[in-house]
Amino acid sequence: MECQKARILIVDDNLELCQMIENVLLQDGFLRVSCCLSCEEARELLGESQWDFIILDVNFPGENGFHFFKELKAKKDIPVLFLSARDRDEDRLTGLGLGADDYMTKPFLPKELLLRVKAILRRTYRGSEKEEEPLKIGGREVDLEAGVVRLAGGLPGKGREIPLTNKEYQLLKLFLENRGKILTLDFLAETVWGSNYYGYENTLMVHIRKLREKIEENPSSPQWLITVKGLGYRLNR
Asked: 18: helix, coil or strand?
């Protein structure tokens, strides 16, 4: 399962905090995030739908998050991250001792929360993910996550990484997403430089030339990133 497809439930009685965490996750690409303000409401949601991850507070009016977690753990095996203002070592050890996957204290850095959530999801659901084939262009592999082109087997310097600039990355991502299709000059320029792209045609040509130097064995006679005269460019399959 891809991390961003995980169904995440945030359980915290602070509505403003819930909404902030929800926004942080959504802005990072997570697609299915919901909030609830009490353990009772969480019980109802957990009974109605399947969830992949829970961010859980400890202190609730009339109920303790540790008790709710023990109840949950007896019924379902869902990864849980405690996010609490209780920052004593005893509380952290209690949460982890009960079987929680992680324990963070408030206040917290949103970036750190994202990193911990993703780490737990990858660790928990790694076995259910299909290993993705690397994106290949001839004898080169493209790692979009790292923003590099890597020389593959059979080429001198195998394994060497060639970094992409920001514009090269955007252009190559467009070509890979539309592989085999002709992308017009106007489409490429507007997508990468925005609606005020007029005058960027020559700049686009320079970036295409630089990109060919990174993905083609012979940039002067390209085999993969082809010019379609009068229209634009196409990345061959």
From this structure: helix
Tokens representing 204 are: 């686009």
Q: Is 13 helix (H, G, I), strand (E, B) or coil?
A: coil
What number does CATH give the domain 135-235? 1.10.10.10
- Residue 127's pLDDT is 55
Strands (E) located in 97-217: 102-105, 135-137, 140-143, 148-151, 161-163, 182-184
pLDDT in tens, 177-226: 899 999 998 888 888 877 666 666 788 899 999 999 999 999 999 999 99
Helix (H, G, I), strand (E, B) or coil at 227: strand
- Tens digit of pLDDT for each residue in 38-91? 999 999 888 888 889 999 999 998 888 999 999 998 888 889 999 999 989 999
Domain boundaries, the chain: 3-128, 135-235
CA–CA gap between residue 117 and residue 115 (Å, rounded): 6
Please, are residues 198 and 190 in contact by the beta-carbon 8 Å criterion? no
Contact (CB, 8 A) for 179 and 235: yes
CB-based burial label for 14 (10 Å; 0-12, 13-18, 19+): middle
Residue 237 CA, chain-centre distance (Å), reads 26
**Is residue 156 over pLDDT 60?**
no
Tell me the pLDDT band of 1, cut-offs 50, 70 and 90: low
CATH fold of 3-128: Rossmann fold (3.40.50)
Distance in angstroms (rounded) separating the CA atoms of residues 130 and 30: 19
β-strands 53-56, 7-11: how paired? parallel
DSSP-derived letter for residue 156 is: T
- Rounded Cα distance between 45 and 163, Å, is 45
